[in-house]
Amino acid sequence: MTDIKGKVAVVTGAGSGIGRALAYDLARRGAKLAVSDVDATGLAQTVKQIRVIGAPVHHARLDVTDRAAVLSYADEVASEFGVVNIIMNNAGIAFTGDIEQMSFEQIERVMDVDFWGVVNGTKAFLPHLIASGDGHVVNISSLFGLLSVPGQSAYNAAKFAVRGFTEALRQEMLVNGHNVHVTCVHPGGIKTAIARNAGAVDGHDVAALAAFFDAKLAKTSPEAAAKSILRAVIGNRPRAVVGLDAKILDIAVRVLGPAYQRLLVMGAGRLMPSAAAHAAVADEPKTTGNGRARASA
Ligand SMILES: NC(=O)c1ccc[n+]([C@@H]2O[C@H](COP(=O)([O-])OP(=O)(O)OC[C@H]3O[C@@H](n4cnc5c(N)ncnc54)[C@H](O)[C@@H]3O)[C@@H](O)[C@H]2O)c1
Fold it and tell me: Which residue from 76, 160, 213, 297 has the least number of CB within 10 angstroms?
């Protein structure tokens, strides 16, 4: 795919953040949009602005974990536009907590949205993309799909899974001679509502976590992220690492190998101050600590 103009593009989780910025950018480049979100209010704002830009838009309230709904949604979009070229599996949630404290259900919820939501969207739209003769799958993983951090095991697991799934898909499309390109996206900290919408195990101050993420970790605007993602789509690139923070850490992990883990534990104080406080408390044998705040990328 060398041009977005006239293409039919589907964006999940388009009611906020990166998904919304992608939808606006696609609309400005002349795409026809199908946008969805579980949040009808956020989605309505996105649709309003797409109409101002002047692009054709189909919209639906859609929960990406509802497989039957995603499958019929794909057919609905294909019959509305006659063709589907791009699926951007963007919808996602964040959750903070150590494995010791997290319930099975909390881990499963993150996997349901962040991994199975991507699988549902990919499988539902893939036949339509193949039929289009010029398709592209864009799956949003994370910097946390390239490296793991304490307190983000469920999110890490989901985002590493998205990466594995997406890279295999790209190879399968090439092996099978389908004209469907595939890009896995790894953003660093992007200024969106993700931390404000995030959950955490009991004892975490979610508001403080969000404030810390917004002030210290979210360095890239959603608009810049969307631009970088669309550059990767037009360039048919397998991977888009978005933001300077993600680019630097990606290189660091590749240079250091598994030793990056020790550095992250040592550097946790600067990245995540309350994690360091916890580490200090944990070093004292008879004291237990919790209440540390960590952020997502
Ligand atoms: N913001 C970051 O720093 C960052 C970094 C790396 C990766 N990401 C990923 O980017 C994607 C977009 O996140 P964002 O930062 O724009 O966050 P956001 O919270 O601003 O937007 C996410 C959107 O997904 C929607 N959503 C959540 N669960 C859903 C579901 N079950 N079905 C349909 N929609 C659902 C939300 O309603 C929201 O509108 C996510 O996959 C996230 O993991 C974000």
Answer: 76
